Amino acid sequence: MTPKEIKAILGLGSVFTLRMLGMLMVLPILTSYGKDLKDANNFLLGLAIGMYGITQALFQIPIGFMSDRFGRKKTIINCLWIFIIGSIIAASTNSIWGVIIGRTLQGSGAISAVIMALLTDLICEKNRTKAIAFIGISFGITFSISIIISPIITHIIGLHGLFWIISLFGLLGILIIKLYVPDPDLTNNTLNNDINFIKNTIKNLIKNLTLLKINYGIFCLHSLLIINFIAVPLIMIDLNIPTHQHWKIYLSTLLIAFISIIPFIIYANNEYRTKQVFLLSITILFISELIFYCCNKQLLLILTGLQLFFIAFNIMEILLPSLISKKVDKKYKGAAMGIYSTSQFLGVALGGILGGWLLQLNNDNYIFIVGMLFCTFWFLINLKIDTSI
Predict the structure, then answer these.
(1) 145 CB burial (10 A radius; 0-12, 13-18, 19+)
(2) N or C: which end of the chain has fewer CB within 10 A?
(3) 9-12: long-range pairs with CB below 8 Å, 24+
């Protein structure tokens, strides 16, 4: 890779990581610390968690098209300002409604697809797969970091302080875009902004059965992530584990998960084996939900369920984006990643809203029943043995 390409990967990867860190740090602590906010209840806390997913899903593709017209870097910077404003609103309020508004604005600055598009503008074709893989892997690392450090930070400076730190992440992202990320060479820009091309591209991708399965997969995976992180932290509090101590559990289970997934990824080196690992991972997710359902608030079972969930989650976070790169023609990859990201954030939105509503019914077991239903349908639509997922 050239020095310019390395700068592009490191710079855009850092911006992606900072923004996702700001979004994900709220997950492990909002249902516990957020109960002190005015008008807060379980449903509204779930809505606050999920709102950024709704606006991410709504704005991902339109903002991607805006970046074609007005420029990638300018679009990313404007979206980061929206993210900062949302973070400041959430940091300045004592009401759950203020947090919901703030989270809504945070998600409105949807830049995942634009970052991917700028990356492809700056990276030559032979290096693009490695660059996109770097961004994809950074999500898993960001998620791991966020659930470990957010309970510690929130215990020290509170929920409002956490949102102030998140707003600083946005400012740092703007500085990186302005000062470090290279400008694309517009003379070599081959983007096609013709509306018919855009319509036909989306139509062809949506009709692709393989991509529908992959997009449903990331939708399911992130729905499960959110509903579990609405219920599990509260169960651990009921077991007299203080919120600021949860990071120790997350850290140990994630470390074991990262080591455990290595043989699975090595084994999945061809399409048939990928299918086996894929179905096994869905089965492990189902078992984790079943264990949560049957745990009766026993710590050993909770830890077992978390361990299995993190193993399967991290396997899927690697497999699903790699399948996009294998199954989609290179001229459609940008649009395919946009639809993939939209599906991911729709899963976040549904998980937050559904999880909060089910918890409001005063029975967290409903959450895990829904989780098992998600896994069952996901497994069944992928059960047919073929080379597509």
Answers:
(1) middle
(2) N
(3) 9/119, 9/123, 9/131, 9/134, 9/135, 10/180, 11/176, 11/177, 11/180, 11/181, 11/182, 12/115, 12/118, 12/119, 12/122, 12/135, 12/181
Alpha carbon distance 114, 205 (integer Å)? 18
Pull the structure tokens for residue 179.
């000062």
Place of tokens 């990262």: 258
Contacts of 162 (CB under 8 A, 6+ apart): 25, 26, 29, 91, 150, 153, 154
Helices (H), 180-270: 195-207, 209-238, 246-267
Residue 211 CA to residue 196 CA, distance in Å, equals 21
Q: In three state form, how does the secondary structure of 12-60 look?
A: HHHHHHHHHHHHHCCCCCHHHHHHHCECCCHHHHHHHHHHHHHHHHHHH
Residue 180 has what DSSP assignment?
T
Cα–Cα dist 250/307, whole Å: 9
Beta carbons within 10 angstroms of residue 188's beta carbon: 7
Q: Which one-letter amino acid corresponds to residue 181?
A: V
Distance, CA of 142 to CA of 148 (rounded, Å) = 10
pLDDT at residue 188 in the model: 46
How far is 273 from 263, CA to CA, in rounded Å?
Answer: 12
Q: Read off the pTM.
A: 0.78
> pLDDT by residue (tens digit) across 334-357?
667 777 878 888 888 888 888 888
